[in-house]
Amino acid sequence: MDMLIGGKHISSDDLQEVKNPYDGEIIDNIPIAHRQTADLAIKEANDAKEGLVEMSAFKVSNKLFNVCEKLKDNKMDLAQLLTMEVGKPINESLVELDRSIETLKLAAEEAKRIYGESVPLDAGLNGKGFFAFTQRVPLGVVAAITPFNYPLNLTIHKIAPAIACKNTVIIKPPTEAPLTVMKFAEILNEEFPDGVINTVTGYGSEIGDYLVTSPNIDKISFTGSVTTGLMISQKAGMKKVTLELGGNDPLVVLKDADIDKAVRGVINGAFLNAGQVCMGVKRIIVEDEIASEFTRKLVDATDRLVMGNPLDENTTLGTLISEKAAMQVEEAVNNAVNDGANILTGGVRDGAFYEATVIDNVTQDMDLVVNETFGPIAPIIHVNSLDEAIEVANDTEYGLQAGVFTNDYYSAMRCANEIEAGTVFVNKQSTFRTDNMPFGGFKNSGVGKEGIKYAVSEMTKTKLIGLNLR
Ligand code: NAD
User: Which numbered atom of ligand 1 lies nearest the CA of 175?
Assistant: First the structure.
């Protein structure tokens, strides 16, 4: 598949294979772009700015609604492509498509709500006799750099609000899974003038880095790992930057919890997309009193997951993004076992598959839970009190989301107030997200918020206009 730049299909002499992690088959080839191609995209996106700014909010909104309809028409085809390039079960891909449609719809609505406010300058010294108001002005060109795990919805979380507030966009899709995003860009381009949306594929270290350092790009909206995010923050200069980074989210189960509900929370939180979720449940912190009942029920529920062909609708656990990724998970689990943890179920790798694995007696200093392990792992850490549960939950460099299971109102509020994370859910696991909520972590999990209204705020600048009426 070609890149789309200024409405034209562009290729490259260098191509890269996109492979299905399930069977290793080549799905397509994509161009490996170099700097000249990125320059072309930067020029086209800058040239298209004026036309988009002149378009009425009414028209931008209608066009985004039209894209929504087209996405609905292409839902099954895109879901199958997504499953083939990422290896996630088809039912999960269909959910990602539904959420993508919802994200676009929210942006189409938000396009009509880009408000400023009147400012009472007479509240300041010498301000009497002025009338002043603010406007939210687009930044210009937004570069969207996105990861492999939810390539479509996470990219739409950048493109849709950017266009809603009249920025043009250059997308650098994930190298491992670029195809669904590239197809979506083609759909969007049918509605908007050429140059409003552009795709540049290639290596992050070359193309991504070039976009980050370009003086002709006004904003970097990045979702990916902490390592890459830190590099971007050091290189972006005066540009606005939003960084949605990794997580190491806790699921706290207190002694008065509804255990069945907590078990469902782990199944949905630790094994979704084979555990490759930024806000996935990565550490299960359980009060000792209920640990044996909880663990027994968790193992039973885990053993009911169906690992298999991701295109089969009965499959509930697909592959990881690559065999290499599965080998890294295998190594992390084996190291934890060598350090004293014990596997209760799972723990076997087959190519890019890794079994859903429950691993008990994990301690908070083991690499398995110090690092963000991106795989279908449910590591259990035992604690003896609410205080200790909060202390362990906060013992991480990350702070994306968190979930606490308890029926005690006071314990719930202590966790909500004291766990350092962008979101704390009570009686729900951290993977829960609606696409309108403010989303973004504390600590190393990121800078800035997404969720359409919040992304719009980060993709506009405030201009004050003051009229001297004296
Ligand atoms: P990654 O950081 O390796 O890559 C993300 C994107 O950055 C890719 O498009 C890649 O090509 C590009 N890139 C790589 N090097 C670059 C550079 N030097 N300059 C600019 N761009 C560069 O992440 P990944 O492995 O694709 O995704 C997994 C990570 O993403 C995990 O850490 C996960 O937690 C995180 N993530 C975060 C969120 C969130 O919303 N907070 C959501 C999903 C994934």
Answer: 11
- 278 catalytic? Reply is yes
Q: How far is the CA of 413 from the centre of ligand 1 (A)?
A: 33
With a 6 Å cutoff on the Cβ, whether 157 touches ligand 1 is no
| Residue 280 in contact with ligand 1 by CB distance below 6 A | no
What is the SS3 string spanning the chain?
CCEEECCEEECCCCEEEEECCCCCCEEEEEECCCHHHHHHHHHHHHHCHHHHHHCCHHHHHHHHHHHHHHHHHCHHHHHHHHHHHHCCCHHHHHHHHHHHHHHHHHHHHHCCCCCCCEECHHHCCCCCCEEEEEEEEECCEEEEECCCCCHHHHHHHHHHHHHHCCCEEEEECCCCCCHHHHHHHHHHHCCCCCCCEEECCCCHHHHHHHHHHCCCCCEEEEECCHHHHHHHHHHCCCCEEEEECCCCEEEEECCCCCHHHHHHHHHHHHCHHHHCCCCCEEEEEEEHHHHHHHHHHHHHHHHCCCECCCCCCCCCECCCCCHHHHHHHHHHHHHHHHCCCEEEECCCEECCEECCEEEECCCCCCHHHHCCCCCCEEEEEEECCHHHHHHHHCCCCEECEEEEECCCHHHHHHHHHHCCCCEEEECCCCCCCCCCCCECCEECCEECCECHHHHHHHCEEEEEEEEECC
Q: Whose CA is nearest to atom 9 of ligand 1?
A: 174
Q: Is 145 near ligand 1, meaning CB less than 6 Å away?
A: yes
If you take atom 35 of ligand 1, which residue's CA is the nearest one? 224
Q: Which atom of ligand 1 is nearest to the CA of 231?
A: 18
Q: pLDDT tens string for the chain (470 positions)?
A: 999 999 999 999 999 999 999 999 999 999 999 999 999 999 999 999 999 999 999 999 999 999 999 999 999 999 999 999 999 999 999 999 999 999 999 999 999 999 999 999 999 999 999 999 999 999 999 999 999 999 999 999 999 999 999 999 999 999 999 999 999 999 999 999 999 999 999 999 999 999 999 999 999 999 999 999 999 999 999 999 999 999 999 999 999 999 999 999 999 999 999 999 999 999 999 999 999 999 999 999 999 999 999 999 999 999 999 999 999 999 999 999 999 999 999 999 999 999 999 999 999 999 999 999 999 999 999 999 999 999 999 999 999 999 999 999 999 999 999 999 999 999 999 999 999 999 999 999 999 999 999 999 999 999 999 999 99
For residue 278, the ligand 1 atom closest to its alpha carbon is 34
Residue 244 annotated among the catalytic residues of the structure: yes
Q: Which of 44, 96, 244, 458 is catalytic?
A: 244
Instruction: Give, using CA atoms, the residue closest to atom 11 of ligand 1.
Output: 204
The rounded Å distance from CA 223 to ligand 1 centre is: 5
Residue 195 in contact with ligand 1 by CB distance below 6 A: no
Cα of 204 to ligand 1 centre, how many Å?
A: 9
Which candidate in 278, 415, 450, 458 is catalytic? 278
